[in-house]
């Protein structure tokens, strides 16, 4: 293997390890919070909380104008110039804009609260709850402004500490509220969690000494125009995804009840939270690296293939472990009440293999600056995903939602591949095809066993498949980055 390829693979592994640590800690907190909240609130309470969160997150996605994504680029570019006056100007514009968009979001929720309650819950009983939750839009938008500042200035340590501390304090302040007030404590707990996250974001953000600059309206417009222009289209894409999730939950609530919404939320949370850490950790480094070589189709193709391979090699054993022990995990993380989501989760796990491939391809359009193509690509994907979700739930209940998730990602992989092949001549490498085929075959066998066998017998029969997956991933990763050599060097350095 060439030194260039080995360096690429090693960078992917290094970034995943660093940012994965923060994700892992947050996951541990999520496990604790989810388990306790599930016991205290039950499926109905989890459903109500999920509907509140979906509605406010949707409004945030609309009113934030995508600044949490687009402004990172502006801050980074200013920082790269080494001109602190320029950095101060961009930072001041960002801080002004997040206040404007945060207050806009709060006002929108207050005005629309009766209709939000009607649309979300089928009545206006939750109007006051939405009014109180309106302040969380301001808090979260201000928090994101600080995160953008830290990320753009590459203050990774402060960014990690802000996220970890915010999650920790949020857990500490919210659990007593759930304990004493139950379902009635959902709104206060969400407000306190958002407030604590904002306070800690500002605490760490203020450690970066950037002097504020007075801005008149023309200057604010000039500096903010670039952030908003790119952000709006990306934001619209995100809003469509949130709307798809929101409409799906409303359909489930109206057709099956809030208990099914709670089961749906819990099932997806297990996979998205505990497997999603890999995607989150990798994207932190993958997107800027891909953007740096986007002008060269050959390098971009190579990096995309490397990323897809490493993602599959890392995720493979994790997903197979999920398939084998998912029933046990549901009981531990939630309670036996949530076992009704088991079938759905099993299908979702299989879909994650396809999501890994679609995810790696999806960044190509953003890195190339093809924002409009990215938007329409996502719009089409969300339309057929929503249609499949409704059809799946109508025909097969909760398990149908898992099936629809799998089918949607089959279509998404084909769609993304055709788009970037036609535009940029992309093709998967034989290595990528092989890694996918081996792990997907092992997962398919594990899936069949999990569907037909239960208890200790499942663990015994499936153990060889899990071992095979781990050994294969280790072999392939070691072949790419000399993992054994890296470990030996670390051990030698420690002993020496």
TrEMBL record:
InterPro entries: Poly_Biosynth_Transport, WzxE. GO terms for biological process: enterobacterial common antigen biosynthetic process. It comes from the Bacteria. GO terms for cellular component: plasma membrane. Keywords: Cell membrane, Membrane, Transmembrane, Transmembrane helix. The keyword Transmembrane helix applies. Its main location: membrane. It holds the Pfam family Polysacc_synt_3. The keyword Transcription regulation does not apply. The chain crosses the membrane at residues 12-32, 97-117, 129-150, 162-180, 186-205, 226-251, 263-282, 311-335, 347-367, 379-396, 402-420, 432-450, 456-475. It is found in: Cell membrane. It is a multi-pass membrane protein. This is O-antigen translocase. It comes from Chryseosolibacter histidini.
């Amino acid at each position: 293997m060439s030194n260039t390829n080995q360096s690429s693979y090693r960078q992917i592994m290094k970034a995943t390890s660093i940012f994965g640590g923060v994700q892992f800690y947050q996951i541990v907190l999520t496990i604790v919070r989810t388990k306790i909240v599930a016991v205290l609130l039950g499926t109905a309470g989890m459903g109500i909380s999920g509907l509140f969160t979906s509605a406010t997150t949707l409004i945030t996605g609309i009113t934030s104008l995508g600044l949490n994504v687009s402004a990172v680029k502006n801050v980074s570019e200013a920082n790269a110039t080494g001109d602190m006056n320029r950095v101060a100007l961009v930072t001041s514009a960002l801080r002004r804009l997040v206040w404007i968009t945060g207050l806009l979001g709060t006002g929108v929720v207050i005005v629309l609260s009766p209709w939000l309650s009607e649309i979300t819950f089928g009545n206006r009983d939750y109007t006051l709850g939405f009014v109180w939750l309106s302040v969380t839009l301001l808090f979260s938008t201000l928090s994101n402004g600080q995160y953008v500042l830290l990320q753009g200035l590459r203050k990774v340590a402060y960014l990690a500490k802000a996220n970890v501390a915010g999650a920790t304090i949020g857990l500490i302040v919210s659990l007593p509220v759930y304990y004493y007030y139950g379902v009635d404590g959902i709104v206060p707990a969400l407000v306190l969690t958002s407030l604590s996250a904002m306070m800690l974001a500002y605490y760490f953000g203020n450690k970066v000494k950037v002097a504020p600059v007075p801005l008149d309206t023309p200057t604010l417009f000039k500096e903010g125009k670039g952030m908003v222009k790119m952000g709006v289209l990306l934001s619209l894409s995100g809003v469509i995804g949130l709307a798809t999730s929101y409409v799906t939950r409303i359909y489930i609530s109206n057709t099956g009840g809030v208990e099914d919404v709670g089961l749906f939320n819990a099932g997806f949370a297990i996979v998205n939270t505990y497997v999603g850490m890999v995607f989150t950790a990798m994207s932190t480094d993958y997107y800027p690296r891909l953007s740096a070589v986007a002008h060269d189709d050959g390098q971009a193709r190579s990096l995309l293939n490397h990323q897809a391979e490493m993602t599959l090699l890392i995720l493979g054993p994790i997903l197979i472990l999920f398939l084998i022990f998912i029933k046990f995990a549901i009981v531990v993380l939630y309670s036996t009440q949530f076992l009704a989501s088991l079938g759905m989760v099993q299908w979702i796990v299989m879909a994650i293999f396809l999501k890994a491939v679609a995810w790696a391809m999806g960044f190509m359009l953003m890195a190339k600056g093809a924002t409009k193509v990215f938007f329409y690509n996502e719009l089409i994907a969300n339309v057929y995903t929503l249609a499949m979700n409704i059809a799946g739930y109508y025909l097969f209940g909760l398990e149908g939602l898992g099936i629809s998730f799998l089918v949607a990602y089959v279509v998404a992989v084909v769609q993304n591949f055709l788009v970037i092949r036609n535009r940029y001549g992309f093709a998967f490498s034989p290595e990528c095809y092989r890694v996918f085929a081996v792990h997907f075959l092992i997962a398919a066998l594990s899936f069949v066993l999990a569907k037909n066998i239960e208890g200790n017998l499942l663990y015994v029969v499936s153990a060889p498949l899990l071992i095979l997956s781990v050994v294969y991933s280790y072999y392939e990763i070691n072949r790419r980055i000399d993992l054994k050599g890296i470990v030996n060097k670390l051990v030698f350095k420690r002993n020496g």
